[in-house]
Amino acid sequence: MNEKVVTVKNLQVTLDVAGQPLYATRGIDFDLYQGETLAIVGESGSGKSIAMHALMGLLPAKSQVSADYLQIFDRDILSLSKKELQQVRGRRIGLISQDALSALNPTMRVGKQILEAAIAHQHINKSDAKKKVYEQLSAVGIAEPKIAYRKYPHEFSGGQLQRIVIAMALISRPDILIADEPTTALDVTTQANILKLLRQQQKELNLSVIFITHNLAVAANLADRVAVMYAGKIIEIGKTREIFYNPQHPYTWGLLEAVPENKVGNDQLFTLPGNPPDLRFPPKGDAFAARNPYALAIDFNQEPTFFKVSSTHFAKTWLLDNRSPAYEPPVEIKERWQQFEQMTEGRKFYD
């Protein structure tokens, strides 16, 4: 097995919202391995971006963060000084944000912005750093890098800006890359090109990637494993094939049914009923119970633990308890299960 580069156990983040605590993440556990891409999927407000900001030490000052483990290469993030955190962010972790334009200084040439990152984290002279910037701009598909170096952010298209932000994130040769919804604001063609670029860079640099998205179809094209988040918790995690073809949590079912690419002709697009809970007042029991047509009585009173589906696949749903009554999943999910059994030569993927 590859080296473990990130360990997160029982991560809890509480934000201050107008003096009211908001429990943004409520006990998250996950690991990331060298060379792996882990997609974290969920609706807006599920806590996926907050968790990554906690990992990078980028939360607002009034935030409260606790964890049994919050480690990058065995370094405890919560015990690091501000200077040490800056070093980790520069050399160990790179960040690609959702809004490329806001990630760049509009009054500074893009080349100079990337140059400053190279000098700060690689400790090389300006001449060598400039060469590296040209090389990195070329590597991410920016034509005529010497000309692009002197341009300002407003002179680029959205897709080009995202490539520049990727170049900035990779200029210091980090071990880990966090991509926070990097394709959300892009058209479909540009989105596909950016995903192709990320796959290429991940492979060439042997990066460990955490890819944050609300789109399961995007996750399917990029990730080795997928973690599904809801209301501040990871509720299902497994290999990409397991999550897509053997999903066990009703929330994951809903996300899959809502993927537009799965619809045929005039089929109506599925939408999950209701809204996520207000995390200033977390509900008792399973946070998804009020929206879950498969909810059991126990869901409203007791939160499920992770049930083991396979050695790599776990889900927090009482439906997996051996005391659960029989149920009939949605037709699309049954079809996925059948495909999964065919993939595994008729064997159920259970230990």
From TrEMBL:
Membrane-topology descriptor: Peripheral membrane protein
Assigned keywords, A-Z: ATP-binding, Cell membrane, Membrane, Nucleotide-binding, Transport
A single GO cellular-component term on record: plasma membrane
Primary subcellular site in the record, as a coarse category: membrane
GO molecular function, one term: ATP binding
Domain ABC transporter: 6-256
Localization (cell): Cell membrane
Domain of life the protein comes from: Bacteria
Gene3D superfamilies: P-loop containing nucleotide triphosphate hydrolases (3.40.50.300)
InterPro entries: AAA+_ATPase, ABC_Ni/Peptide_Import, ABC_transporter-like_ATP-bd, ABC_transporter-like_CS, Oligopep_ABC_C, P-loop_NTPase
Keyword Repressor: no
Similarity comment: family membership: Belongs to the ABC transporter superfamily.
Protein name, UniProt field: ABC transporter ATP-binding protein
Annotated source species: Weissella paramesenteroides (Leuconostoc paramesenteroides)
Lineage: Bacteria, Bacillati, Bacillota, Bacilli, Lactobacillales
